[in-house]
Design brief:
By secondary structure, the chain is an all-alpha fold. The chain contains 6 helices and no strands. Helices cover 81% and strands 0% of the residues. α3 (45-75) packs antiparallel against α4.
Length: 145
Amino acid sequence: MTDLLISLYPWTKAFHVISVIAWMAGLFYLPRLFVYHAEAKPPEELFRTMERRLLRAIMNPAMIATWIFGLCLVFTPGIVDWSQVWPWTKAVAVLAMTWFHHWLGKRRKDFEEGTNSVTGRQFRMMNELPTMLMIVIVISVIVRF
């Protein structure tokens, strides 16, 4: 199995990066849709449709692919040195990103049920979280402190 992971490493890494880009695009866009939805008078059905499709057709598959390819990279011999700090900071940031993804999913259900209590301003503030987490992840992986 380790020989297979080593031989597929460039492909695994490429698909991991592709899925991360798709996931991040959704994490940046969905909160922005929520801002517009929260501030719409009256709330538009179009927003519900766009939010549902973005989450289910793009973000969920991208998050799952990111996790699968990321775990394959973790289990590829020689890629991750757990005695260093960087894999731990990346892991914490990825877990936080996953939490944020699920938080957004819950907010989408709130909009669907008509029970949203988060303001457009609060969604704008939360929209900064994936950027901060992305910075931590990229610096952790590239700088490897």
